[in-house]
């Protein structure tokens, strides 16, 4: 009888140990970079989708994660060097895949925001108008067609770069640029800054682009990256990601952004 009881206790201990072993290794503190970008994160309010997501990662993992605000360009450099463990809402390309892994948690489309007085009605017209200047955030990449437009205009010296959205909004209002690339997180700012009255939105004919937790390959071993991936997958599966997005978007838009097929 005692032997059976001891066997049961040992089995429970092993199961509990395996559960904890399956989670991320919290033996050291981690770092995570946020960038000021519309509804993803606002420095003014210290709130946003990515802040909520980071808080949930901290709660679920039980790890100490220091959050810092920095430009997107700096985030990518630090991720590549291994000086930064994580960032959020990142998209992949061939170059980034060399030094980062991604755990997807939402997907969205990109749009071209153009001044009405530019007389431009589609992406092709913007591309062909030699006087049209496009504003972009330094180190940002977008969907395929948007990236092609940026690359072509860069070669023609028709790109104005900034560290964030605010300088681009100002440049658009002052007619220093005729357009900029936006995503759904930027919509509230368009209303607040009265930009919507003088602009029109043109859609790129591209599918939605997955965004995710960015993990530095230099900072995190593959086995640990898989554990963080599993944590993000769990947050998607149990509805946590959807609930976060529903705080900031209408239910139908939130649903469209979080219900997507993640790539392997």
Structure explained in plain terms:
The protein has two domains: 30-108 and 209-258, Periplasmic binding protein-like II (D-Maltodextrin-Binding Protein, domain 2, 3-Layer(aba) Sandwich); 111-203, Periplasmic binding protein-like II (D-Maltodextrin-Binding Protein, domain 2). Helices cover 42% and strands 20% of the residues. It contains eleven helices and ten strands. The strands form two sheets. The protein has a five-stranded mixed beta sheet with strand order 2-1-3-10-4. Strands 7-6-8-5-9 form a five-stranded mixed beta sheet. Strand 1 (30-34), helix 2 and strand 2 (65-69) form a beta-alpha-beta unit. Helix 10 packs across helix 11. It starts with a helix and ends in a 6-residue tail after the last helix. Mean pLDDT is 91; it is low at 1-21.
């Amino acid at each position: 009888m005692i032997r059976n009881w001891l066997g049961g206790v040992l089995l429970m201990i092993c199961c509990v140990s395996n559960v904890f072993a399956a989670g991320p290794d919290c033996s050291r503190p981690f770092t995570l970079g946020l960038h000021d970008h519309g509804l993803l994160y606002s420095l003014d309010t210290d709130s946003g989708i990515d802040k909520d997501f980071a808080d949930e990662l901290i709660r679920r993992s039980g790890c100490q994660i220091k959050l810092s605000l920095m430009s997107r360009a700096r985030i990518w450099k630090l991720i590549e060097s291994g000086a930064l463990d994580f960032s959020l809402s990142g998209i992949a390309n061939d170059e980034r895949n060399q030094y980062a892994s991604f755990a997807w948690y939402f997907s969205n489309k990109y749009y071209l925001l153009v001044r009405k007085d530019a007389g431009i009605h589609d992406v092709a017209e913007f591309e062909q108008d030699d006087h049209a200047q496009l504003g972009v955030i330094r180190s940002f990449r977008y969907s395929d067609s948007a990236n092609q437009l940026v690359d072509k205009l860069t070669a023609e010296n028709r790109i104005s770069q900034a560290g964030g959205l605010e300088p681009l909004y100002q440049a658009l209002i002052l007619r220093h640029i005729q357009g900029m690339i936006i995503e759904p997180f930027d919509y509230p700012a368009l209303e607040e800054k009265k930009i919507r009255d003088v602009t029109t939105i043109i859609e790129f004919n591209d599918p939605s682009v997955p965004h995710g937790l960015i993990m530095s390959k230099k900072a995190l071993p593959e086995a640990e990256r898989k554990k963080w991936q599993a944590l993000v997958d769990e947050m998607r599966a149990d509805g946590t990601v959807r609930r976060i997005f529903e705080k900031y978007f209408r239910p139908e838009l939130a649903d469209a952004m979080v219900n997507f097929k993640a790539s392997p």
